[in-house]
Specification:
single chain; 169 residues; alpha+beta; Aminopeptidase; five-stranded antiparallel sheet; 30% helix; 35% strand; globular; GNAT_dom
Length: 169
């Protein structure tokens, strides 16, 4: 099921056929540089299952990012509930296969998710939780209009919280 469409991308719910493409990306050390470790096959399967649960519980989660032209899965992007300093926030998260880096796909997908969250879900604020050393993710957040809000200790380490607040809120 396609959730949203951008100029070059389709974002849809995960399905069981996505495991190979997703694991190829998540098991790569360079792609997962800002995570504690690359994902095992089991962890990738759990990632897909957790997002399927999010679709049911929240109405959103991380979605498969596919090229419109070929339908190839090149990453994921979407909305995820996170607890930050005791408050529930909705984060835009994104991962793109390294062979597609620096082509604007993460920004395009994140912008689509931002519009979905603000205008279809009616959210007033969105965040991104970013490792301070992850300059490409910082650039994506800034490119779609987010700005640094604060630093916070999340996932057992220091992270930057970038946010976007809808005008008038």
């Amino acid at each position: 099921m396609v959730i949203l469409e951008t100029e070059r991308l389709l974002l849809r719910q995960y399905n069981k056929e996505d495991i190979v493409s997703l694991h190829s990306m998540f098991s790569d050390a360079e792609t997962m540089k800002y995570y504690p470790a690359p994902f095992s096959l089991k962890k990738t399967k759990n990632w897909i299952q957790k997002n399927k649960e999010r679709y049911e519980e929240d109405g959103y989660g991380l979605w498969a990012v596919c090229l419109k032209e070929t339908n190839e899965l090149i990453g994921d992007c979407g909305l995820v509930k996170q607890i930050v300093e005791g408050n529930m926030e909705v984060e835009i998260g994104y991962h793109i296969n390294k062979k597609y880096w620096s082509q604007g796909y993460a920004s395009e997908a994140a912008k689509g998710c931002m519009e979905f969250g603000l205008y279809q879900l009616g959210l007033n604020k969105l965040i991104s939780i970013i490792d301070p050393m992850n300059i490409p993710s910082i650039r994506v957040a800034e490119k779609i209009g987010f700005s640094e809000e604060k630093e916070s200790f999340i996932f057992n380490k220091r992270h930057l919280i970038y946010s976007f607040i809808k005008d008038g809120c």
